[in-house]
Design brief:
TIM Barrel; 9 helices; alpha/beta; 211 residues
């Protein structure tokens, strides 16, 4: 299995520099990594550096998902205008936990309508959700027509867990793909998540995993 083809390399820390971005993008190209996941400010620069082989993914409303629906749509459209190939969008977890499921559903549908034709991954932040809430969140993401559901931002108390990924894969029934992310630091972890059905891995430990 060529792990590199499944990895979205995260460059999302608030203190990374332009030099660091340039070095990591170049390394990802050398290793044949699928894509880099970055904050909106760096999309144009990353696009210029990435070339044709490396996908550029923009994190939207990262890491808490608490921007308004309108702000998320504008941020997504600007990222695509700047050259992003894919979007990793954080669901409004606070609204979801408050029972405002209608708002969350409409937000996801609005984002889906405005970004049709691109790969969208919705981060539901499984660490904050019960099993029943994970099921409901998955239903909302599928109903909105998104391409991926993603476990974590990496900023919650826990990241991807095998039981959560297994649950998402089982319940998705082929309707949506699963991205495992958060706390994935070793080759063995990455391989295990792919074996149980994840189709993309999000990690900032790419170079250690692929060494």
């Amino acid at each position: 299995m060529d792990l590199s083809k499944y990895i979205d390399h995260s460059i999302l820390k608030p203190n990374h520099t332009l030099k660091g971005l340039e070095e990591q993008v170049e390394k990802c190209k050398e290793l044949g990594v699928y894509g880099v996941c970055i904050n909106p400010f760096w999309v144009k620069r990353a696009r210029a550096l990435a070339g044709k082989s490396l996908k550029v993914c923009c994190a939207v409303s990262f890491p808490f998902g608490l921007d308004t629906k309108e702000q998320k749509v504008k941020q997504s459209l600007k990222a695509l205008e700047d050259g992003a190939d894919e979007l990793d969008i954080v669901m409004n977890i606070s609204a979801f936990k408050s029972g405002l499921l209608g708002y969350v559903a409409e937000e996801l549908k609005a984002l889906s309508r405005h970004t049709e034709g691109y790969t969208r991954k919705v981060i539901i932040e499984t660490a904050y959700l019960t099993t029943d809430e994970i099921k409901r969140a998955l239903e909302l993401v599928i109903d909105a027509g998104m391409e991926f559901v993603k476990t974590s931002t990496g900023y919650a108390p826990e990241g991807a867990k095998e039981e959560d990924v297994e649950l998402l894969v089982k319940l998705s029934k082929g309707q949506i793909k699963v991205k495992a992310s958060g706390g994935i630091k070793t080759k063995e972890q990455a391989q295990r998540f792919l074996k149980i059905g994840a189709e993309r891995i999000g990690t900032s430990h790419t170079f250690e995993i692929l060494k």
